[in-house]
Prior knowledge:
The protein is mainly beta. It has 2 helices and 6 strands; from the N terminus they run E-E-E-E-E-H-E-H. The chain has helices at residues 72-78, 87-91; strands at residues 3-13, 18-23, 36-42, 45-58, 61-66, 82-86. Strands 1-2-5-4-3-6 form a 6-stranded antiparallel beta barrel.
Amino acid sequence: MSYQYIGKLAAAHGLEGRVVLRHSLEDKGIWNKLPHVFIEVQRESYIPYFIEDRKVINHNEVLLKLDEIDSVELARTISGKNVYLEEEVFARLKPKPV
Length: 98
């Protein structure tokens, strides 16, 4: 399976394990359609995380609540990690130039 980089987890937010994703996707409404993202936890090791809740902050940031990330400590462990979508899903979107 091939993956396409869409952004980076910038920071943990709040005590419930939410994370801020800085991304390169143009369509803010796309977040309601995406069931999951892939996080590169180690080089070329992409782990799927299901999106439980999302809130668009601005045109290039979204606040995500990810499955299994339920504390600020766990959120900090994935902060700074790169985020990807499957190549075929990404191809249907309109990304901004990186």
